């Protein structure tokens, strides 16, 4: 047993327990007297152990498994063998208090940590170079476990935004690193606990399942657990077990993705085959994809398994190709009425696809026919291409309008649209024309989102639709409250009644209500008082996350002061900073605040990883290269921040945003000025 997996906890805790059918005793501990709200975690604990025991065919080896909520910790959770520690908000669930997002995330975290009782604890990597064997696999299989135990959460749908897209994003920076990273120096250990290890790692396992097969993956993992239990392993040991189970060259097929930094961009073009007009020849060329197009390096290639869907009027032909070199060609029969050709259907492959304009036109024409995963993938890729300069940002905005035309109502798609629009708006915030065109953003949001919102009849405490509709409505409300006075007034009236205990607001609407309070000085003052008296961590976290809605500079400054005050629990600070910096008003004021209060901030947030991550998130929002040098001087002046991986990525982000602004400012402004919403909404 590795020494890092040993834990002792002393304190006055309440708990609930259950004896499992296998003889293991399961318990959940917490300081707060909310024992009834621990039942979900206790049920999940036993159910996940049963799932993993069945999946790996290797039983949980200990007599007990305790989950405990620790009052002060900067990490989400730690998989100590038999005594798993969690941040204090992660183990509570009350349907009257807990909203959809925390329920989903908290359940995933429990599944992740219990997976470590096998991945990491029973079988441990030889060295931190192979940490992805712990984290990547646990991050993938947690989705499989939650999907089995709680199918109503539809958890795989959230995998794409919360993992796949995040892994692709970080790995498109020059400053990224390989999954199998040489971690010989203690100073770089924090760097390996990032989205490459977790999100890219889990996405590659998902990719591997698509061409190895789920049954063979399960069989190979079972053999791996049985063979190496109570031992130490490397990535090659896993490949050998999977290759034996599947009789496929797993190391060859996935090794180029784990050993190299980055991933491929596939350029796809087509032409009529010479001598046969009924056939089309498709040509694929691969290169490393980088957001910072100015920093292209040496040619890289990957061994890339690719699924291809050729969809005709009356049939769909599925095929599989293996791209082993820089380029590849294949032929498609076009005489049957070809509608479109789609590479990487269901988005299992860890790469992006850049089609010729004519191929994109075919896909966009049939956008409504595509699966959620494929619509998500097209949207995500296209936005990334706009940021990198492969396409003009106006083309991406046109695609958003295409989603409006088909009356898109998937909440995950709308999250991508809103996030990208907020980033475009924050970019144009620095334009000298911003005041002139600001109302265009409001007009766009109101005319596009209000009709969707108006379809649903709801009050603060009543919503007679399914959970996905609830998430969609709350997602749109968070945006529209800034532009719709009636909606904002409604939310503020809810808050007045809520604090007087005259109204029970639905958990998914509660953060919207708190966000509205940041737009009103009287309600903001009342909100701070309410924060002090809030009885649950769920409410406190939502109040902090809502801070990004503040627009009054005096309120923004007060929030920053609050973040290092005696009222703030240090591990909750991330909930302010992670959302607050997305507001351009907030990060300009925040930069001044950090420079003038640097000692207080560093003393308050003592964990190095949290310090550097927070500072990096702030840096990454800047637009002008001049800030690059200012930020660099700041980091050099305070060595305790560290010049680690996330800081390097943030500096690269400044360069990317600067180039994006310089090349696309006028394009975005022109698109907004020429937008004919009546024409779009008429479809």
From TrEMBL:
Keywords: Aminopeptidase, Hydrolase, Metal-binding, Metalloprotease, Protease, Zinc
Residues annotated as the enzyme's active site: 113
Cofactor: Zn(2+)
Site note Transition state stabilizer, residues: 198
Ranges of residues in domain ERAP1-like C-terminal: 340-655
Pfam family, one: ERAP1_C
GO cellular component, one term: membrane
Chain sites annotated for binding Zn(2+): 112, 116, 135
Cofactor, free-text remark: Binds 1 zinc ion per subunit.
Start and end residues of each Peptidase M1 membrane alanine aminopeptidase domain: 48-255
GO process terms (BP): peptide catabolic process; proteolysis
GO MF entry, a single one: zinc ion binding
UniProt superkingdom: Eukaryota
Protein family per UniProt: Belongs to the peptidase M1 family.
Stated name of the protein: Puromycin-sensitive aminopeptidase
Organism the protein comes from: Thelohanellus kitauei
